[in-house]
Amino acid sequence: MKRARVVVEAKAAASSVKRISPLPKHVAIIMDGNGRWAEKRGLPRLLGHRAGTDNVRRVVEGFSRYGVEYLTLYAFSTENWRRPGEEVNGLLDILAQMIDRETRVLHEKGVKIGHLGRLDALSSELQGKVHKAIEMTKNNTRMTLSIAFDYGGRAEILEAVRRLIRDHVALEDITESSFNKYLYTANVPEPDLIIRTGGEQRLSNFLIWQAAYSEFYSTPVLWPDFGEKEIEEALTAYSHRERRFGGLKAEGETKGGSGN
C-alpha cells in the first residue's frame, strides 16, 4: 500500500514540473558555500552547515520530481578532517542529527540511501546510524541518494588498487570494467551531470575516475540557497549540451543533448 502511494505521489509531482529532455540519469553535487552563506549573515560557520543540511530534503525532492534516478551529494571530504576540531565535531553532530531526522522521511518517499567513502574514522554510534539508514531503505526504488562522507577520489582509487592486489587479480584481468567493481560507486552509474554551487570551477577530488565524461555545471548560488529554480536551470543547461565521449556523440543523441 505504501509503495503504491509513493508511485502516485511521484507521478503527481512529475506532472507539476517543466518538461526537460534529455535528463541526466545521475546528478552529483559538490555542495559548496555553507560557510560563506553564514558569514554573509554574520553567523557562525556551523549554522551555515546546518542550513545546508536542512536544504538536502528540498533538493532531493526537487530532482526526484523531474525523474532523476541517482543523486550523489558531496558532504565531507577526506581533506575536511584538517578543519578546526570544533568545526569537524560540529559537522559530525549535524550528520548524526540529519540521519535521525531524515531517514524515515526519505524511506517513506521511496528513496534508497547509500554511502560513499570510509566509515572507520566515525564513532561506532555514528557508524551504526549509517548502517541502519542503508538497511532500512535498501529495497526502495524511486531514487538512490548517495552521501559522500569522508570521501576522496584519490583515496578511493588507491583503495581499489589495494583491494585488487589483495584479491590477487591477474594483470590481464584488470580492465576499466573490473576496476569499476572495486570503487565505492560499484552499484551506481557514472554521473551524467556534476553541479558545483558557490561559483567555483573545480572538482575538488570528487568522483575523479567516474567524472571522465560528465558534464560540469557551476552556479554562483550558495548551497543553502540552491532550490527549485536552480535545479530547473541546471537541468535545462544539461539538456542543451552535446555530449561527446572521446570525440563521439552519445548513442541516440539529438542536437542539444544525449539520449539517456
Characterize the structure shown:
By secondary structure, this protein is α/β, with parallel strands linked by helices. It has a single domain, classed as Undecaprenyl pyrophosphate synthetase. Helices cover about 40% and strands about 15% of the residues. The strands form two sheets. It has a six-stranded parallel β-sheet, sandwiched between helices. Helix 2 crosses helix 3 and helix 3 packs parallel to helix 5. The longest helix has 24 residues. The protein starts with a helix and ends in an 11-residue tail after the last strand.
Put the structure in a nutshell:
This protein has about 260 residues and is α/β, with parallel strands linked by helices.
Structural class: alpha/beta
Spatial arrangement of strands, main beta sheet: 3-4-2-1-5-6
The main pleated sheet reads as: 6 strands, parallel
Please mark out the parts with pLDDT under 50 across 5 or more consecutive residues, or reply none.
252-260
Instruction: Name the helicity range.
Output: 40-55%
The CATH architecture: 3-Layer(aba) Sandwich
Question: How much strand content do the residues show?
Answer: 15-25%
Residue-averaged pLDDT, rounded? 90
Q: Could you give me the name of the CATH homologous superfamily? A: Decaprenyl diphosphate synthase-like
CATH class: Alpha Beta
Q: Helix tally?
A: 9
Question: Based on DSSP secondary structure assignment, what is the total number of beta strands?
Answer: 8
The CATH topology is Undecaprenyl pyrophosphate synthetase
Shape: globular
